[in-house]
Amino acid sequence: MKEMENLTTYLVQRAQVNFETGGKGIDSILQWDYMGASEYEWGALPKSIKAIRDNISEYTYLDIPLGKKAITAFCTNEQKPLMKQFLTDLSKNKIRLKMSSHFDSVIKGEGYYHDRTNFWFDIENNLMFWVKNNEFETKFKELIQTKPV
Questions:
Q1: Which of 34, 68, 141, 149 has its CA 20 to 30 A from that of 26?
Q2: How confident is the model at residue 88 (pLDDT cuts 50, 70, 90)?
Q3: Interior CA angle at 92 toward 88 and 97, to 5°?
């Protein structure tokens, strides 16, 4: 298998950790932001989650210090060595996205979105990352492996 040189993406879905959404599965702990572009609709998120579940044995968790925050990444073992640079680039707006991730605001701790967004889902690379949150991570680990009924 060819080693990955870097991670690039165009589609990062924003969300906020919320334990009272009333949804099922992952939707029970996340409140998704409306992104305003068709690329995020028509089943894009479920398709990416299915790809993750189909390859769940290849996934790992990684804590990455970034600024004054700790970010937890949920990615494949192959993506793991690239995550720190990927998140650093994203925090400095060096990655052009379809819609803003507001990740830079969260890392800087300023701006309208700095306390409204704390979870991101790269639906092209099938990886997720969030501001470190042990309670969320425990629930996420239970939910990511099983499809809701």
A1: 68
A2: very high
A3: 95
pLDDT at 114: 65
d(CA 75, CA 111): 28
Helix or strand holding residue 27 (H, E): none
Query: What pLDDT, on the 0 to 100 scale, is given for residue 48?
Result: 94
Measured distance CA(24)–CA(20) in Å, rounded: 11
Q: Which residues on adjacent β-strands are paired with residue 60?
A: 75
Q: Which residue has the tokens 């924003």?
A: 14
- Domain borders along the chain are 12-144
Residues listed for the chain: 149
The rounded distance, in Å, linking the Cα atoms of 116 and 38 is: 22
Q: What is the pTM of this model?
A: 0.89
Under a CB-based contact definition with an 8 Å cutoff, are residues 86 and 105 in contact?
no
State the chain's mean pLDDT as an integer. 88
* Strand partners of residue 15: 32, 119
